[in-house]
Amino acid sequence: MTVQSTTPDLAISFAGLKLQTPLVLLSGCVGFGEEYTRIEGFKNSDVGAVILKGTTVEPRMGNAPHRVYETPSGMLNAIGLQNPGTRYVIDEILPKLPHHETQFWANANGSSLEDYAEVARMYDDSPVTAIEINISCPNVKEGGVHFGNDPVMAAKVVEAMRPMTNKPLITKLSPNNADIAETARLVIEAGTDGLSVINTLVGMAVDIEKRTPIIGNISGGLSGPAIKPVALWKIHQTRAVSAKHNIPILGQGGLTTSNDAIEFAITGADALGLGTGLFYDPLICGKICDGLREYLNQHGMDTYSDLVGSLKS
């Protein structure tokens, strides 16, 4: 083991973008960005990018309650993509964000190919630096996971959006897909610039007194530490395809500690997504950055990228 005398560099390149750290705050966990930046002690300098809450062409009311339920080692959510519409976000929210401190990415959703294309067109002339494509949301009744579970339809979503924007497109893949590698291959061929791996798993919880589902939508997306082993396996499967095409992976799913971050990096995550962990420790980003630097220093590595994909057989 070689201990470095210099501070390892956490800056990365992802889909042509320069990020100051590999940490990305995930869509749905930080509102539209401005809420999270008001937390005392939080520093945008610890974050490479913030992905805004998902938007659709028109405003959505979302699902009926209950929408969130804590589970052992995780949580279920079924928000239903409640949002004020893409145009409102562009006109009223984006101008207020500290774009000089970190990057902000959009998260695009739709119930048809035309919807996805229109959201991409609207965001193209805006300050967001990338667009994440949510083809794998498990808690809406149309679009979402129905596109994500069909590799051919997933590719068609990317094909519809690609001509509408020059911004990098990051396709969010579903762990509920039987063949995530095939979906990755097809969306890469369709023109995606990056992959988010993974979205939430589908789950449910039951009120044993009422004998009814706790979540109003019946099912919801399961996130948190419980899904980390699934995320690592799906990243490993996806990297077998993405590495051949130089397409980066934003690894996510149960990542809550610096040791988790190291595991994700070794498995092949070019960037690291933080979501559910932010709810119990809003200052987790700084702690993970410190832990990454310490590990890299102890193992004689100059950069975070030196660690990525270093899994040994």
- The rounded Rg comes to 18 Å
Helix content: 25-40%
Q: Encode the helix/strand succession as letters.
A: EEEEEEHEHEHHEHEEEEEHEHEHH
Total domains: 1
Name given to the CATH homologous superfamily? Aldolase class I
Order of strands in the sheet with most strands: 3-4-7-8-9-10-15-16
Class per helix and strand makeup:
alpha/beta
- The number of helical runs is 9
Second rung of CATH, namely the architecture: Alpha-Beta Barrel
How far apart, in Å, are the first and last alpha carbons? 20 Å
What is the number of strand segments?
16
Describe the sheet with the most strands. 8 strands, parallel, barrel
Integer average pLDDT: 94
Quick structural summary:
The chain is α/β, with parallel strands linked by helices and 313 residues long. It has helices spanning 86-93, 113-124, 145-148, 151-161, 180-190, 228-242, 258-267, 277-280, 284-298, and strands at residues 12-14, 17-19, 23-25, 49-51, 68-71, 74-77, 103-108, 131-134, 169-172, 194-197, 201-203, 206-207, 212-213, 220-223, 249-251, 271-274. The strands form four sheets. It has an eight-stranded parallel barrel with strand order 3-4-7-8-9-10-15-16, surrounded by five helices. Strands 5-6-14-11 form a four-stranded antiparallel beta sheet, with no helix packed on it. Strands 1-2 form a two-stranded antiparallel sheet.
